[in-house]
Design goal:
single chain; 205 residues; alpha/beta; 7-stranded mixed sheet; 4 helices; 9 strands; 20% strand; globular
Length: 205
């Protein structure tokens, strides 16, 4: 989706005991290995699908309104990621897709943190920034993007209140992660946890 460009950065986020970050709740986060693939850096689309479904199922927020993609800008990585997103969400879900790397480059160790910061800003301000360098959609992305929408370079996106969003980050070593955040006023009526809870999830291969 975007042209690969290296970047450097550092970031941190303070997570409250109930999973709140400046008025935005971290609804879920899943981390796993992508398992066997064609090479060290080649992605595994099936592993990404299972990761996304697990994170979204744990969050119980339905389809996110916007997804901050890992979006490396590589010919193999982007079509695999968008195809996995389409398969995980199903037809008609139609979230918009943004990518911080189009503005900041690939921060490598901090790429996921930059994406999470951008997602928090989007949910706090109910407005998503456009993909700065996107002029024409990669031809390999056309099939999976039929039910998704990439924000063009001149296009911003206004979120309705009580929205949710997802952010993906895929590591060089094969570790892949997806987090789901939601606006504070979209929390379910059930009582909030008094502390942050971690659990082990069994993924099938």
């Amino acid at each position: 989706m975007f042209r690969y460009a290296r970047g450097e950065g550092a970031g941190a986020i303070t997570l409250g005991p109930t999973g709140s970050m400046a008025g935005v709740d971290l609804a879920s986060a899943r981390v796993r290995s992508d398992g066997k693939s064609a090479s060290l850096t080649a992605p595994n689309g099936s592993a990404q699908v299972r990761l996304l479904r697990s994170a979204l199922g744990m969050a119980s927020v339905g389809s996110p309104r916007l997804v901050e993609a890992h979006g490396t800008g590589t010919p193999l990585g982007d079509p695999t990621e968008m195809g996995a997103l389409e398969r995980a969400l199903g037809e008609g879900a139609g979230p918009s897709v943004s990518g911080a790397k189009s503005s900041f480059g690939h921060g490598e160790p901090t790429a996921g943190m930059v994406g999470l910061h951008c997602m928090l800003r989007t949910l706090q301000q109910c407005s998503a920034s456009p993909n700065a360098q996107l002029r024409a959609l990669n031809a390999l992305l056309v099939p999976p993007m039929c039910s998704l929408m990439a924000l063009a370079a001149t296009q911003s996106f206004i979120l309705r209140s009580a929205s949710s969003g997802g952010v993906s980050s895929f590591g060089y070593s094969g570790t892949i992660a997806h987090a789901v955040a939601r606006c504070g006023d979209s929390r379910p009526a059930a009582p909030r946890r008094t502390r942050w809870h971690c659990s082990r999830c069994q993924f099938t291969w």
